[in-house]
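Notebook, bench 3.
Goal today: get a predicted structure for Type III pantothenate kinase from Bifidobacterium pullorum subsp. saeculare so we can plan the truncation constructs. The sequence was checked against the plasmid map this morning, with no discrepancies at the termini. Length recorded as 255 residues. Pasting the sequence as submitted so the record is complete.
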Amino acid sequence: MLVTVDIGNTNIVLGFMEGGSIAGTYRIATKAQHTSDEYGILLTEFMELSGYGRGDVEGVIICSVVPKVMHSFRASIVKFLGVEPLIVGPGVKTGIAVRIDDPKSLGADLLAGAAGAMAEYGGPALVADFGTATTYIHLDAGGAIDSGVITAGIRTAANALWGQTAQLPEVEITRPRSILATNTIDCMQAGLYYDALGGVEMIIRRFREALDEPFRVIVTGGLGRVFEGDSDLIDVYDPDLILKGMAAIWQRNRR
């Protein structure tokens, strides 16, 4: 069994992969204050819930955009599982060429998402990841990243909305019942949703105009499910794309 760990700014997503399939996924809030023992206990408890023990672990791969958490989580892997994890980053074989101005600046999560997109769907593709930030990367037919866009995620925009206003409440981010909202909560949900969806569709259209070639649009990230089925410009919603990409990267680097 392969353990995949996606450390994001808001959540840590654990995936247990066996035979190319995902046997279980779990989310932990990302907190720099957690010790390696705390992360280790959570990890082993989730493994037990999926029916696994320490002896079942063949390898561990970590993809992180939060350096402060890396030391504790890596230490938890070594202490509780007895495995040195593979860290997605420079020197790791990914099968993805990075043709941007500063390749080293590309986030490990984007690299893993690209690897997942190529392994599952092939190129060319536009991969949109809805997290704390919403990111877009374009992959050419050969699997090279040649361009991208970064913007505020819908939850980040929502936090700014109710965090900077005295009378607007915190609301659930969800698909609204109608654009014809008649109360504060519905008005906020409709505004957040349609503003974000409009931005997504505009960015996709601009990529199509600039590239003038067909490509598949693949959406991932926890908040991506909010828009699933609501735009004919989105071809696929795959919530496990980054985990699949890490599994593909691990296979390329296993000894």
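Helices lie at 36-49, 67-81, 108-120, 154-163, 184-211, 241-253. The chain is about 35% helix and 25% strand.
Flagging this for group meeting.
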